[in-house]
């Protein structure tokens, strides 16, 4: 498979991942599937890791990767291949943007998982809306989850969605890193499919 075709496959993979991340971030605004006041939403949700980082910022490299396969590479200083080489080189910049965006989402998700959700916490010492699991101790002690009485099932909701964001972000980082290597190879060696003059169809 030529470097442009491989980049297109990466772009096709990144798009649905971006959509999933945006949806997860939106769902986090409804903890436990309930509508709550803005002050009762976990602060990490407002950092928009899934919407901005793994969502909007990932759309740009995905679209660029998709377009590399059909890039018109003819007529560049008399060299038919230099247009595609430049396109592959420029895709490295967009891949780097994707890495930064996904990395931001991963960091936000990791912090959110460690600190746990904001909830109405009720035990012998506390009866208020707090973010009680600041050191991640709730991950191995599910009995603590029962003390979060509102919203219902908020801990599992929070943990599940941020875990999805974390995993999706890591996958996006890997895919963009692969495109960095693919872009370098495409820029240095050219597209093995060739271009212009009848060799476009060769794979």
TrEMBL record:
Keyword Glycosyltransferase attributed = no
* CC annotations in GO: membrane
Q: Which GO terms describe its biological process?
A: negative regulation of pancreatic A cell differentiation; negative regulation of type B pancreatic cell development; pancreatic epsilon cell differentiation
Where in the cell does this protein reside?
Membrane
Q: Please provide the record's keywords in A-Z order.
A: Membrane, Transmembrane, Transmembrane helix
For this protein, the parts annotated as crossing the membrane are 12-33, 45-66, 86-107, 155-178
Which InterPro entries does the record cross-reference, listed alphabetically?
L6_membrane
What kind of membrane protein is this, topologically? Multi-pass membrane protein
The domain of life is: Eukaryota
Q: Which family does it belong to?
A: Belongs to the L6 tetraspanin family.
Identify this protein by name.
Transmembrane 4 L six family member 4
């Amino acid at each position: 498979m030529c470097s442009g075709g491989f980049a297109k496959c990466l772009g096709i993979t990144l798009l649905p991942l971006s959509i999933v991340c945006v949806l997860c971030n939106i769902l986090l605004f409804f903890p436990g599937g309930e509508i709550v006041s803005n002050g009762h939403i976990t602060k990490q949700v407002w950092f928009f890791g899934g919407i901005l980082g793994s969502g909007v910022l990932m759309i740009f490299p995905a679209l660029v990767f998709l377009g590399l396969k059909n890039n018109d590479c003819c007529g560049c200083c008399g060299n038919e291949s230099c247009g595609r080489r430049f396109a592959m080189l420029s895709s490295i910049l967009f891949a780097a943007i994707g890495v930064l965006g996904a990395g931001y989402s991963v960091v936000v998700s990791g912090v959110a998982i460690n600190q746990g959700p904001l909830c109405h916490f009720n035990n012998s010492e506390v009866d208020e809306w707090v973010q009680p699991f600041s050191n991640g101790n709730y991950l191995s002690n599910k009995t603590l989850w029962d003390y979060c009485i509102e919203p219902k099932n908020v801990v599992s909701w929070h943990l599940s969605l941020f875990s999805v964001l974390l995993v999706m972000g890591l996958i996006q980082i890997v895919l963009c890193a692969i495109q960095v290597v693919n872009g370098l190879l495409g820029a240095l060696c050219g597209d093995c499919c060739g271009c212009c003059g009848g060799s476009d169809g060769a794979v």
